[in-house]
Amino acid sequence: MIVAAGAACLPAHAAFAADAPECKAVRLSDLGWTDIALTNTTAEIILGALGYEPSQTLLALNITFDSMRNGDIDVFLGNWRPVQDLDYKPYFDDGSVIPVATNLTGAKYTLAVPKYVFDGGLKSFDDLQKFADKLDHKIYGIEPGTNKPLLDMVEAKAHGLEGDWEVVESSEAAMLTQVQRAAEAKEWIVFLGWQPHPMNVNMEIAYLADGDAEFGPDFGGATVRTLVRKGYPELCPNVTAFFSNLVFDIDYENTGMNMIMTDGLEAKDAAIKMMQAHPEKLDAWLKDVVTLDGKPGLAAVKAELGIQ
Questions:
Q1: How many domains does the chain have?
Q2: Which of 17, 65, 275, 305 has the most CB atoms less than 10 A away?
Q3: In the beta sheet, which residues pair with residue 140?
């Protein structure tokens, strides 16, 4: 691009003012997870204040990757590593998706149980078969396309699994309802758990050991990355700069998610409250980012949010 070639001669913010007209619509994938509801909506509010027209589309994880490969989705804020990097390796290998930021560190993602189940002896993936009858041979997962490590584990009869084990696929909300119902009755249940999430604050849970083959070491210790579709950084450098800056932390996400899940706030209201409480985040998120028409981005967003 001619603009890019001359970027070195321009002020930093001007270099990002060259988004193509089609960049005005920014299409984000929503998996129905509360963490992505918070992060997507945060991005949506900021992009709207910058003059863009962002939208979220509810998609399964596998459809998200297909949609990015097909050019139907621009941005995905939920690339949990390492598990997705393994399951969706071909999309990274052929350049269909491009990582632009690690938006969260210190996450975890593996099987979990209520504390009373852990205290009863189910402490490891290798203990599952021992308590198969108490668990009704069921492992509770979330949306289809997200549970592949568990489905593969059951099919391979890993960890000594025997009999007709079932991975129950539903949604984050449905799974948590099932867990809460079981916990109230002190019934045994094993489910897919992760951090950040209010489940770590509002329930007594413990994570199972020895799931390294399925979810990686350190109890599925994970980072979360932001992906954009192939060609997007060149076409939309200003939006890409914003998403490269958009980095959260565990406390921020736990607090914002708790507003949604426990306090009953809409994602938009929670996202606005969090940004108003942490204006310093905006300074970092909007560094060298401008509005769609080339004006200073930080000032526009703070004005929209009523932040001095």
A1: 2
A2: 65
A3: 168, 191
- Give me the pLDDT at residue 8, please: 35
CA distance 110 to 191: 8
What tokens does 154 get?
């059951």
Q: Are strands 191-195 and 25-30 parallel, antiparallel or unpaired?
A: unpaired
Owning domain of residue 181: 108-220
Q: Which of 220, 241, 256 is the last residue of a domain?
A: 220
CATH number at residue 254: 3.40.190.10
Question: Is the distance from CB of 104 to CB of 193 less than 8 angstroms?
Answer: no
Amino acid letter, 220: G
Task: Enumerate residues 6+ apart whose C-beta is below 8 A from 37.
Answer: 30, 260, 267
pLDDT in tens, 94-130: 999 999 999 999 999 999 999 999 999 999 999 999 9
> For 38, phi and psi rounded to 5 degrees?
-70, -50
pTM: 0.76
Pairing of strands 25-30, 53-58: parallel
Same domain, residue pair 213 and 123: yes
At 84, give phi and psi (nearest 5°).
-70, -30
Q: pLDDT digit string (tens) for 152-200?
A: 999 999 999 999 999 999 999 999 999 999 999 999 999 999 999 989 8
Confidence band, pLDDT 50/70/90 cuts, at residue 5: very low
